[in-house]
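subagent[fold] <- orchestrator: predict structure for attached chain, return tokens only, no commentary.
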Amino acid sequence: MKINVGVFFGGVSCEHEISCLSANQVMNALNRDKYNVIPVYISKNSDFYTGEALFDLANYADLDKLCTTCEKIVLYKDGNTVYLKAVNGMFKKAQNIDVAYLSMHGTNGEDGAIQGMMEMLKLPYTSSDVLGSAVGQDKAVMKQIFECEGIPMVDHFYFYCHDFDKDVEGYKKKAKKIGYPLICKPANLGSSVGIEIIHNEDEFVDKIHEAMQYDFKLVIERMITNLKEVNISVMGSIFEARTSAIEEVMKNDELLSYKDKYLGGSKSGKTKMPSKPVKGSKGMASTSRKVPADITEKQQKLIEETALKIFKVLNASGVVRIDFMIDKDTEEVYANEINSIPGSLAFYLWKEKGIEFDEECDIMIDEALKRYRKKEKKTYSFDTNILKNYGRK
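subagent[fold] -> orchestrator:
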């Protein structure tokens, strides 16, 4: 019997379109002999849709029109089964889902929101759980945990945006202590959205205000000027995990931009797509990279060991990508951040280890089901009702 896989994507996020790219890669890669693939598109208005049109990336050029060609749906639980049901009743019968394949990035996708929904529905899902997702999405909280665990990071500080104008001079002093240039990041976004480079004190206030439009909290960190960016993926769970090949990411500007990542900023070194490619942009696969990375054996071992430690410390699951920075002047390695649902699901790093994209999808679904079964063996509630005698004398 085939497994019904609901592929969830879209959402209220700056990375909405990137999520659509990743989801189409997944839907093309899933083995139709093993799975019934059910697209579940979440619009920028947080409405849920399904339909055949969602399988063709060419239809996403006009998102409003796309929604009109699909069926608006709701999710509900009946007994131990989760169903999709059309709002207008066009379905002949409700469609059940056995497992949710989460292909959402950024807000509501990687921050624990959609994971919390899956937990409430008791629907197995492919990603880190609520805590692992939330901590991985919030760079400020993540760095605090890294610090407690002795994971190497560049010097940094963070603040809430509403506090900034109350103590501009105080934050300038903190910045001066670290030293310019600095990187300013929204704490809860990805895909290089909202990131600013602050070259000197004259730019400090204006750049901070630019970044404020994207988040309530910002992270300021020392910028490594002679930088080598390397990424590694980890797959599995807290019980057992493995590492992928390590890539060295190339960039066209001072910072690996949204354009570099998703709009094909470089013409060289592009990674090939899975055996069933999608039309149009190749997502993270279009980024110029060198695999394996040009690093020493000592650096490789440190990155692999640190990545596995981060994966376990943050209670991660499924497939994640962990980004590192190497200061080429000192050869020091620093952990940067974790992406709990990475663009293109980092398939290009697993391919180097002999794992094709369809196999990676199989592993993630299997891992989601195994993790669900482990949870079902734990006690989360009691059959007794302490309120049954409430009000009685």
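orchestrator: received. Logging for downstream: Residues 257-281 have pLDDT under 50 and may be disordered. The CA atoms of residues 159 and 218 lie 6 Å apart.
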